[in-house]
Design a protein that fits this description.
alpha+beta; 4 helices; eight-stranded mixed sheet
Length: about 280
């Protein structure tokens, strides 16, 4: 068995660093790829945001985010090195269908159409944020950690063809991004119960797990390569290729979590799948 030296952790700061493979079971290395990781296993964890890698504040309210999700992909590089890929700035999301005349049109007619749209987004996000905070307060604590004060990452408009039923034209949706993936189930229950803005919303794509969303949005298959366009490794860097004895000694004495290359990246913005 030939052992390859473990590569130190790395950070990828380019939002377009994740490249998709062309087809299932086939990994073609794009010319822009500088590092590739085979996706063997993945999970996520919550941590304090890091400037340059994570989103540190909500694009909607500019409120600071104390904890953000980071996807962790365990696998091997193209040369066989054990690798841990950290994917930053990826958030769980789902869609709710709107009626433009009943929802946005019900706001003040003195506002311009663009202003009414922004006002509706802010009002919707504030209502959902307050409902989540009250729901978890009744449970005796915050889901995802006592330090969590922001539940909504962003709310924006999206047009797509609904999946259910027969539809010809695109319709208006709200794309809701949450900070913590564990809050999705409670948020969806509140939206369907009528606790948000006095009406019940029809929710789409809330059943897709956070890890699966990341795979689908970036066209990644299990055991496939994730191609990265830019990265920076975390120290310490190896000074030279170790000898066979050094490798064997490291395999025995080094904790398993320290034998991985830790690579961080920011994926491209996902496309809506409602029209597919």
């Amino acid at each position: 068995v030939v052992h390859t030296p473990a590569v130190p952790p790395a950070d990828v700061m380019d939002s377009s660093a994740v490249h998709a493979s062309t087809s299932a079971g086939t990994s073609q290395f794009p010319t822009t790829s500088v590092f590739s990781v085979r996706a063997v296993s993945l999970d996520y964890y919550m941590c304090m945001p890091r400037a340059g890698l994570d989103v540190c504040s909500s694009p909607l309210s500019n409120a600071p985010l104390r904890r953000v999700p980071v996807i962790r992909v365990f696998g091997t590089s193209a040369s066989g090195q054990k690798t841990c890929l950290h994917v930053h700035s990826a958030f769980p999301y789902f869609f709710v269908q709107l009626n433009p005349h009943e929802d946005i049109g019900s706001l003040s007619s003195h506002q311009a159409p663009h202003s009414r749209g922004d006002l509706y987004r802010f009002t919707f996000a504030r209502s959902l944020e307050q409902a989540l905070s009250e729901a978890y307060a009744q449970d005796g604590g915050h889901q995802g950690g006592a330090e969590q004060t922001e539940y909504i990452h962003n709310v924006c408009f999206s047009k797509a063809v609904p999946f259910y039923g027969l539809h010809i034209q695109q319709q208006l949706f709200l794309r809701i991004s949450l900070v913590n993936p564990s809050n999705v189930t409670r948020a969806v229950a509140l939206l369907r119960s009528g606790a948000i803005m006095g009406r019940s919303f029809k929710v789409y794509e809330s059943h897709i797990p956070f890890m699966m969303q990341f795979f689908v949005d970036n066209r990644i298959y299990g055991m496939d390569y994730i191609h990265l366009g830019a990265l920076s490794f975390r120290p310490p860097l190896p000074s030279a290729r170790p000898s066979t004895n050094e490798i064997l000694q490291r395999e025995v004495t080094t904790p398993n979590s320290q034998r991985y290359v830790s690579v961080s990246t920011r994926p491209q913005p996902p496309l809506s799948r409602l029209h597919r």
